[in-house]
Amino acid sequence: MHEPIRRADFVRFVEAKLSYFSCQGCGSASYDVISEENVDGKGAPGRLAVIAFAFPGYDIADGKSADVCGLACTNCGTIRFMFRKVVTNWIAANPTR
Predict the structure, then answer these.
(1) What is each CA distance from 55 to 48, 65, 69, 88, in whole angstroms?
(2) Kind and range of the H or E element at 92?
(3) In a domain, 80, yes or no
(4) Does residue 50 sit within a domain?
């Protein structure tokens, strides 16, 4: 099982890697991180939702998946994904000061 990605670390990644967020659907510059707390208001504060895409013939429970983190446009709801491995590698190389 992976360590959870903190919302604050993902926001740092997004701000460092995306020079400007522009929704691919409506052009809005307003987004929110998809996290437990903003899905139903009851999730763990600051814990990022990670979505797993299974490879054919494998079981997600065995860890055979491509994991992604996401941003959602606050205007139209379009979702943009980032590959979890790239995010976690960046966080490890750029710890909070």
Answers:
(1) 22, 6, 17, 21
(2) helix 84-93
(3) yes
(4) yes
